[in-house]
Design a protein that fits this description.
511 residues; alpha/beta; six-stranded antiparallel β-sheet; 14 helices
């Protein structure tokens, strides 16, 4: 991480911590106990996490350039889970502090407490569906709609619950903050969901070319004749099919498979493999789309390399490499590049002619090895990726090469595990998530950084919550009200014992 990364991450943590510091600064002591304060402050932190989820996922260009969109989405998922954990602790601690399960399980609580329970259940469904939507066969667009509806519902209900239930929100500065953050979060959501494509450039389909079995390359040109946006080879864009007769007006991310040296159009190569993409072959010349981009950092020009480049592609994962290789060829690059391209059969190989042309007719020292898994009469390499392929075809010290991997998530994770066995540092393994609806992403260096950053932020928030809860409660487990209730219960129990003994004595005297 460089200084810009550290500054943004630090700013995010400070923004998360501001409500906690405001509460302590404006009301440093309270009659509530330590346990109740833990619950209240954890709830406050969990709500802040939810507010900032809308900013993280808003496709802000400078954040993408700094962290890469797939890493932001990975961080977004992690912080969503942590927000859920913080709110679980919020409920549990407040229940313990009340010395009763009525608040958690009862139905005769104040309306804003019951509203909090409903919000928590919706958040639970949101987390479960986000983690396991593929296991219950929920399509990408349906999952995305559910995710957005739940997110807005959680935000609004959480705001109402916290405003009426939280004693700390009686403080005017915190009320002002609370009336700024939810509208800001909703503004980011509305912009990203409804207006981002309203102002997006319009493109028309120039042609549709079949590149392999169920795989089509589509060229898009700006309708006003100007040049398409500049991009680095290997980046992706979001396409919304606004005026296509045979396709729903949905938006989807696709890799830009054309080279940045191509100034007249953009191209994406798409395999018919899902509910939406299965209709991609029906796109016709002249259809209109809107495109926003570029996004991502899956590009050889984004990194410095000390060794040879090794590209490992699975199926349609060839698309970023097609862009990078064509760009290198156009720039008369003379470096050594090794491409391992995995497919089921020969008919699934996309860009076969282009790859042959680059390896045979340009200055780029490209060597292509095709590996098929389901064609018995294939005379070349067969099976799946293993380290023996690298040892057979790559020269020099394997751990010094830079590896770019793209394909289905299971393949990427398997390849990365094998590379790690060869002592290849994570900093030399580059990959991006293949499909944003996937619940998991490759275990790359950037994913490890996202894990570390999220854990450090959460740990720091937990420490701050515990410290402030202790200082505000003078480290007493239960507050004055709880202690009075306990004393009252104890006194009632003792009085009952005394009355019982008196009654027994009277009965004995009668006898």
């Amino acid at each position: 991480m460089n200084s810009k990364h550290i500054f943004v991450v630090s700013s995010y943590f400070i923004a998360m911590a501001i409500p906690l510091l405001m509460v302590y600064g404006l009301m440093p002591t309270t009659e509530e106990g330590f346990i109740a304060q833990i619950g209240m402050l954890m709830g406050l932190s969990g709500i802040m996490m939810v507010f900032f989820q809308f900013i993280i996922s808003a496709r802000i260009k400078w954040l993408d350039r700094l962290f890469a969109y797939n890493n932001l989405i990975d961080f977004h998922r992690r912080m969503g889970v942590w927000a859920f954990v913080f709110l679980v602790v919020h409920f549990v601690m407040l229940t313990i502090s009340e010395q009763s399960f009525d608040m958690l399980l009862g139905y005769d609580e104040p309306w804003y407490i019951n509203l909090g329970k409903i919000t928590f259940l919706i958040l639970l469904v949101q987390v479960l569906v986000s983690i396991g939507h593929k296991k219950i066969s929920v399509g990408y667009e349906r999952w995305r709609t559910m995710h957005n509806v739940f997110a807005i519902s959680i935000l609004i209900l959480m705001f109402v619950h916290s405003f009426y239930a939280g004693n700390d929100l009686e403080l005017l500065p915190l009320q002002v903050l609370w009336f700024i953050l939810p509208p800001a979060a909703i503004t980011f959501f509305i912009w990203q969901r409804f207006f981002l494509f309203t102002f997006a450039p319009k493109y028309k389909v120039l042609n549709v070319v079949k590149k392999a079995n169920d795989t089509y390359s589509i060229q898009f040109a700006p309708i006003h004749g100007n040049e398409p946006f500049a991009h680095n080879p290997g980046q992706f864009h979001f396409i919304k099919f606004t005026d296509c007769k045979h396709l729903k007006p949905e938006e989807h991310p696709f890799t830009i498979s054309s080279s940045p040296t191509q100034k007249s159009h953009l191209a994406s190569t798409i395999k018919a493999s899902g509910d939406f993409t299965s209709q991609i072959h029906q796109i016709q010349e002249g259809d209109r789309v809107k495109i926003i981009g570029p996004f991502g950092k899956m590009s050889h020009v984004e990194k410095s390399h000390s060794g040879a480049l090794v590209f490992i592609a699975g199926g349609i994962g060839i698309t970023p490499f097609a862009s990078m290789l064509q760009y290198m060829a156009d720039k008369d690059d003379q470096r050594e590049v090794m491409l391992f391209y995995f497919n089921a059969t020969e008919s699934d190989i996309a860009f076969r002619e282009e790859l042959n042309h680059i390896s045979e007719n340009t200055s780029l020292k490209l060597k292509v090895v095709h590996i098929l898994s389901r064609q018995d009469n294939w005379e070349g390499e067969k099976g799946r990726f293993d380290t023996e392929l690298l040892k057979k075809y790559c020269s020099g010290t394997l751990s010094e090469n830079d590896y770019y991997v793209c394909g289905p998530p299971l393949m990427i994770n398997a390849v990365i595990k094998d590379l790690r066995k060869l002592q290849v540092p994570l900093t030399k393994i580059h990959s991006e998530m293949f499909g944003f609806a996937a619940s998991g992403s490759p275990a790359t260096h950037h994913k490890k950084q996202a894990q570390l950053v999220s854990r450090l932020i959460v740990l720091a928030l937990m420490v701050l919550v515990i410290l402030l809860a202790g200082l505000r409660s003078d480290w007493k487990l239960f507050g004055n009200d709880a202690q009075k209730n306990m004393h009252s219960v104890s006194r009632s129990f003792s009085l009952g014992q005394e009355l019982g003994l008196i009654k027994m004595g009277l009965q004995i005297e009668k006898k």
